[in-house]
Design brief:
With about 230 residues, the protein is mostly beta strands. It contains three helices and 13 strands. Strand 7 and strand 8 form a beta hairpin.
Length: about 230
């Protein structure tokens, strides 16, 4: 992706967040210049990849496969003594025409919540022991209601509704056409994008960036390390 595309996507997400009157933590407003002075007091942000994130899954088709997100809080299973939080929270911004590809998590259980905007469609499958899509009914938990749907069903979430995605449950998501962009919330166990995503079709996670203009915000995988004097 071009840096100009990333900057545009971040500003669009900021505008959606303002529209729904959600206040972000201070680190979401830091500039690239600010990060040059962020010492070890900010290691939790660096180590747990808090902050802004753009994914095109390495496919360079962001308007079709990918979305914008912010990790607001996160623990770290690799550094439990230093970061003992067993939970994470995110906001995701998805535009019409975009989607997230089919995947599951080995460790993470998550609630995906429609915080506002249009309607999101989440397709669900069980996984076989070999990691294939199982042709078995899926038990779906939505806002206190448990019900069973056929494999491959798209569960429709209108604003305010949510779904619990359990470990090893394949899911993808896209928007219902004509309903507009969506701001999603995610409340989950600790998030580990480097080791806990099992994509049905092998793909990447973070974009390769072409620097055609200065960054508006640094992404969560771009923070400079603080060097002790």
């Amino acid at each position: 992706m071009k840096r100009s595309e990333i900057n545009k996507a971040l500003k669009e997400m900021e505008a959606m967040i303002r529209e729904y009157r959600i206040a972000l933590p201070p680190f979401c407003n830091l500039t690239p210049e600010d990060w040059q002075d962020m010492d070890h007091e900010y290691d939790e942000i660096r180590d747990n990849m808090l902050g802004w994130d753009i994914t095109d899954y390495g496919l360079d088709r962001f308007d079709k496969v990918g979305f914008s997100l912010i990790t607001l809080r996160n623990g770290n299973p690799k550094k439990k003594e230093q970061y003992p939080k067993p939970y994470a929270e995110k906001l995701l911004y998805i535009k019409e025409g975009q989607m997230a590809p089919m995947h599951f998590h080995w460790y993470k259980m998550e609630d995906i919540i429609n915080r506002g905007g249009g309607n999101v469609l989440i397709r669900v499958y069980n996984s076989t022991p070999e990691g294939e899509l199982a042709d078995t009914p899926v038990t779906v938990h939505c806002d206190g209601r448990a019900h069973t749907v056929p494999a491959g069903t798209q569960v429709r979430l209108t604003p305010g509704q949510s779904i619990t995605v359990f470990q090893n449950m394949y899911h993808d998501f896209e928007l219902e056409p004509g309903t507009g962009p969506v701001l999603l919330g995610e409340v989950s166990m600790c998030n580990d994008d480097e080791h806990d995503n099992r994509f049905y079709e092998p793909i990447g996670r973070f974009p390769k960036i072409e620097e055609d203009e200065p960054p508006y915000r640094l992404l969560c995988n771009e923070y400079p390390k603080w060097e002790d004097d």
